[in-house]
């Protein structure tokens, strides 16, 4: 279970809290006015989340690439000439932001 501490306690005991997070690999939730505001988490959790995100993103890219290339062809857009700026314009247009 996560440990809950006030922001004041965390400020006054930061080194000890950091040592505890590293040693026990547990998250500490920081409270302000009894409301969760932030967390100190083991760095390994960030690495795991990043690896998972990268894996899921790569899988989504592999799965959607053929559909995107077909769509570009229908739009008469040469994928080899597609710039990053043009790609963002297409994304904004598809999302209704343009």
TrEMBL record:
Record-linked Pfam families: PhdYeFM_antitox
Protein origin, superkingdom: Bacteria
Homology family: Belongs to the phD/YefM antitoxin family.
Function: Antitoxin component of a type II toxin-antitoxin (TA) system.
Name of the protein in question: Antitoxin
Organism: Candidatus Beckwithbacteria bacterium CG1_02_47_37
Lineage, broadest ranks: Bacteria, Candidatus Beckwithiibacteriota
